[in-house]
Amino acid sequence: MNFHVLTLFPNLVTAGLSGSMIGRALEKGSIRINAVNIRDFTEDKHKKTDDYIYGGGAGLLLQAQPVYDAYKSVLAGIGAGRKVRTIYLTPQGRTFHQGMAQELAQEEDLIFLCGHYEGVDERVLEQVVTDYVSLGDFVLTGGEPAAVVMIDAIARLVPGVLHNGDSVMEESFSGYLLEYPQYTRPEVWKGERVPEALLSGDHKRIREWRRQKAEERTRLYRPDLYAAYEALMQCRRDLLQNKLHHMDMAELICREKAELLYHDGEGTLLRERKSGTLMITVKSKEAGERILDAFLAQDGEIPKLLTAKQAFMEEVIEKRLHMTLSTCDVQAVYTRKEAPPIKPHDIRQLCTAHLEMVLQHYDLADEAYLLDRLSNGAVFGIFVENTLAGFIGEHAEGSMGMLTVFPAYRRRGLAAALESFMIHRTLQKGYTPFCYVVEENQASVKLQEKLGLYMAKEKVWWYENPHACGGEKISSKNNGCK
């Protein structure tokens, strides 16, 4: 990911981002910082970039010409024929938050404009700025400190920047809860012991303890966040009244990946926070129209993908969102607490070095999406005599998928071994295993039934945005759960 910063003081930006994890990410090439000196683009022989304000008033204002020319130089370097998201750091903007960081982390390039003095000539702001953003209700001497903070928050969400992808999803503000207390060695310090639950080795018990402590902290320190969390939990309880049909939505909440956009007795609209995929379930067409109208009025961002739980929503989605129906699947859910038996097999976590092989055999996602899954340690391969024979993974929203066994290794029970392994891994983390299956793929349907998964009676309908590109694709089939 590339961060371009338009500034009068490039050293303030580069110095603030040269250390720790962000510095290592820069060295690895996971991210790039391009600090552009606005002063280099002034037409004034004395390198002047500011002037007095028309109409009078204290202070000086950054002139339009050097800012605009610096901006155009960045666009020329990117080679973009489109308008790149350009952020102006100003107290008048929307307050920056974790959800905004997650949204901006999906961009390939971001431009930051750092103001100084009394600000920037309004005419150039109207020409180049897409987002006005503030760190809070206070004033800084310039935009550089704010840019450094935002870049740090966004960059750590880019695959490859943090060593542990799970840490991004288990931190403060990820799911409306503050982070739980954490401990390291020694086990006893000044008479205080590490809580017994954390020493038990029981993943479920540890997860429950952490959730309880996170709830206690949030209720005490951030009652506003806790109210949002409670609304999300009530939504999950309502969805689980028909758990086979709504397990994907309930699990999105359970795994702290959901943003609740709408919920009442007539329907629910969720958004997967990383990809922006929408999930909607409603009791009537009228409720669907009302919920999507409210979404468009408040948000307006049409996602790449949407899943709907009712067939009658097709006309509403096509009319409101201009998305087209691509396919429909059946959801399979593993409801038992114990995993199916796993026969000994050589199953290993795959890494980015396996991208070429995965791309060659799996056509339901593009390269960037698969790279993200591999970078996050979410894809596992099965090896026969040290040769990769197939793989399975966990999709961004939590479903098991990508199940593929190479033709030369089929009819050996490898698909069952891979999915059993993934079920076991999902249960260990305290989650419910589920996947999407193409109903016509009877081999996959039989595999789910053999492993003890229950098939929902209702279908899941997938819609695509024809104007979006990249991410998951849902128009073709493979030889296992999607």
Topology, element by element:
Blueprint: E1 2-7, H1 10-16, H2 20-28, E2 32-37, E3 50-52, E4 60-62, H3 64-78, E5 86-95, H4 98-104, E6 109-113, H5 122-128, E7 131-134, H6 144-155, H7 165-169, E8 188-189, E9 192-193, H8 196-199, H9 203-221, H10 223-239, H11 243-254, E10 258-264, E11 267-272, E12 278-282, H12 285-298, E13 305-308, H13 314-321, E14 324-333, E15 346-349, H14 355-361, H15 367-375, E16 379-384, E17 387-394, E18 400-405, H16 414-428, E19 434-437, H17 442-451, E20 454-464
Parallel strand pairs: 1-2, 1-6, 5-6, 5-7, 12-13
Antiparallel strand pairs: 3-4, 8-9, 10-11, 11-12, 13-20, 14-19, 14-20, 15-16, 16-17, 17-18
Helix pairs in contact: 1-6, 3-5, 9-10, 10-11, 12-13
Characterise this structure.
The chain is α/β, with parallel strands linked by helices. It is 37% helix and 23% strand. It is built from 17 helices and 20 strands. It has helices at residues 10-16, 20-28, 64-78, 98-104, 122-128, 144-155, 165-169, 196-199, 203-221, 223-239, 243-254, 285-298, 314-321, 355-361, 367-375, 414-428, 442-451, and strands spanning 2-7, 32-37, 50-52, 60-62, 86-95, 109-113, 131-134, 188-189, 192-193, 258-264, 267-272, 278-282, 305-308, 324-333, 346-349, 379-384, 387-394, 400-405, 434-437, 454-464. It has a 7-stranded mixed β-sheet with strand order 10-11-12-13-20-14-19, with helices on both faces. Strands 2-1-6-5-7 form a 5-stranded parallel β-sheet, with helices on both faces. A hairpin with a 5-residue loop joins strand 11 and strand 12. Helix 9 crosses helix 10 and helix 10 (223-239) runs antiparallel to helix 11. It is globular, with a radius of gyration of 25 Å. Residues 165-173 and 474-479 have low confidence and may be disordered.
